[in-house]
Amino acid sequence: MSSRITTRMSRVCHPLLATTRVGRYTLSSSLVPCIAVTQGLPAEVRHSSHSPMGPTPINPRKKVTIKSLQTLYQKNEPIAMLTAHDFPSAHVAEAAGMEMVLVGDSLAMVALGMTDTSEVTLEEMILHCRSVSRAVSTAFTVGDMPMGSYEVSPEKAVASAIRIIKDGRVQSVKLEGGAEMAPTIKRITQAGIPVVAHIGLTPQRQNALGGFRVQGKSTAGALRLLQDAFAVQEAGAFMVVLEAIPSEIASIITKKLRIPTIGIGAGNGCSGQVLVQVDMSGNFPHGRFLPKFVKQYGNVWGEALKAIGQYRDEVKTRKYPSQQYTYPISKEDLKEFEKAVEESSTSS
């Protein structure tokens, strides 16, 4: 018996709505086209540009959990975190082996074209969290709580956090603020939701801070940061982001805490690092401002611009699509079609 799979094709058609004569042929039309049903094949053949990106490449590692993150922290192995704002950016972050993927409110600027993070809404954050979560299979996901979703009261914060977890399908939330946010952090963790705290430069509060300024540069400022770090730790945060802090101060804070710190512009003495994917991958036009702490690892914008420009040129010169990118038809069928069209033209 042959091991080759025998394929059987059947066609399922909806009732005809109209018929059209072309020469000696009768063509039928339907609101729903005939569907080819293939039996015995492992997957269907798609002839459409509207196809999924495909499954995330198989990652041999186990699912990253809070416990495994704590293990990395105890081993003094740096934790790699990166932002993602949609399915493609999360897809590549997962494939690259990020341990943590943050759906940061920086997407307000890099994905939605807004001026700053204060503009993005809870509904928009949830939408982007859902998109990211579909692409991530092993990394630990974190969703930013946008401005206005948690400051009013701990109860409102819990309600917002539940929506981000339940509807956004991420595994934890991140919120900005130090000691003043400790009661809110405690209340959210009591609801069973893991919290990543964020102190130092807190972009949502840029107006109160006098802009995007480095924090903790004075003795008093550094002491306030340490107090904030202790406060969020005691409130139940399992991790804290330290942003735009002198590296020496960040290192001391890291050593004093019993939870991991994630640095962004805080030196390499932290327990891990995070960057905005658009920044570090170079997915932006020339001349865009980058903070001092950003290292650009690629030139995604340049490669995309080159590819799109070449596509435009080939369309204009009819170089694309060449025969290689078109579907064939037999000479006999083509000749018969041309004859039918000619007969139709003659009869009319």
UniProtKB/TrEMBL annotation:
Q: Name one GO cellular component term.
A: mitochondrion
InterPro entries, alphabetized: Pantoate_hydroxy_MeTrfase, Pyrv/PenolPyrv_kinase-like_dom, Pyrv_kinase-like_dom_sf
Q: In which pathway does it act?
A: Cofactor biosynthesis; (R)-pantothenate biosynthesis; (R)-pantoate from 3-methyl-2-oxobutanoate: step 1/2
Gene3D superfamilies listed in its UniProt record: Phosphoenolpyruvate-binding domains
Q: What is its EC number?
A: 2.1.2.11
What's one GO BP annotation on this UniProt entry?
methylation
Query: Among its keywords, does the record have Methyltransferase?
Result: yes
Question: What does the UniProt keyword field contain?
Answer: Methyltransferase, Pantothenate biosynthesis, Transferase
Q: What class of enzyme is it?
A: transferase
Pfam families in alphabetical order: Pantoate_transf
One example GO MF annotation: 3-methyl-2-oxobutanoate hydroxymethyltransferase activity
Note the superkingdom of the native organism: Eukaryota
Keyword Methyltransferase present in the record's keywords: the answer is yes
Q: Which reaction does it catalyse?
A: (6R)-5,10-methylene-5,6,7,8-tetrahydrofolate + 3-methyl-2-oxobutanoate + H2O = 2-dehydropantoate + (6S)-5,6,7,8-tetrahydrofolate
NCBIfam families named in the record = panB (TIGR00222), PRK00311.1 (NF001452)
Instruction: Relate the protein's function as given in its record.
Output: Catalyzes the reversible reaction in which hydroxymethyl group from 5,10-methylenetetrahydrofolate is transferred onto alpha-ketoisovalerate to form ketopantoate.
| Name by which UniProt lists this protein | 3-methyl-2-oxobutanoate hydroxymethyltransferase
Organism, scientific name? Polytolypa hystricis (strain UAMH7299)
Top-down, what is the taxonomic lineage of the species of origin?
Eukaryota, Fungi, Dikarya, Ascomycota, Pezizomycotina
